[in-house]
Amino acid sequence: MNLFVFANAKVYNLLFEDLLGRYNRLVRPVADPNDTIHIEFKLKLSQIVDVHAKDQTLTANGWLIHHWYDYRLSWNPEEYGGVRHFHLPGEMIWLPDIILYNNAHGSPWVSAITKAEVYHDGRVVSDVPTVADSENSIFPLQTWEPPVVYHSFCTINIEWYPYDVQQCELKFGSWTYSGTQLDLMHVSEPAL
Fold it and tell me: Least enclosed by CB within 10 Å: which of 19, 53, 65, 95?
């Protein structure tokens, strides 16, 4: 058993060095600077913490689900002992700079950088199961899901209180990239 673990560790170390030795996490993962990186994205709402009528704000907890391909993080599994995927610290790879544009207070950025699971074909995901029916989902069963707490502006009309219904819009986008550089594709879950 110890010999297997040692041999396996050598393979992972070699793969890690080969992938990240010259990797620049500040550069968009596209082969041509004119290419667009496609990010599949959705907010998985966990809890509405507060709707504050006086301040016109909404506070919500959830996860931002991202999925994309980074061609620089691809390899031939046969050259690395059959390794098809492994975990990398999120802060070591390129991550999309998606923020909440209508942020009311606090940080609009994702502050918790979770580990990402990288597959040999360049898929960047993590080990948090999301959709039970993965065959019909645009996302694989596992996706990169950093947890978030957002405080957003929300126009609240209490004219018909207590029978009012509020609709709050959360506006997400890239902070630095134009739509031709980063295509943020919102994916909603199918109705149950």
Answer: 53
- Write the CA distances from 78 to 4, 6, 21, 82, integer angstroms: 17, 18, 20, 5
First-to-final CA distance of the chain: 46
168-181 b/e (C-beta count within 10 Å ≥ 16 → b): bebebebeebeeee
Q: How far apart are CA 91 and CA 77, in angstroms?
A: 24
pLDDT in tens, 79-114: 999 998 888 888 899 988 888 889 888 766 665 677
Who's near 9: CB < 8 A, 6+ residues apart? none
Tokens 């942020």 belong to residue: 103
Residue 75: exposure state from Cβ atoms within 10 A (0-12, 13-18, ≥19): middle
State how far the alpha carbon of 81 is from the alpha carbons of 11, 75, 152, in Å.
7, 11, 48
φ/ψ of 143, rounded to 5, equals: -140, 165
Q: Which architecture characterizes domain 2-186 according to CATH?
A: Distorted Sandwich (2.70)
Give the residue-averaged pLDDT of 46-74: 88
Q: Please give the model's pTM, rounded to 2 decimal places.
A: 0.76
CA-based max dimension of the chain: 71
Domain boundaries, the chain: 2-186
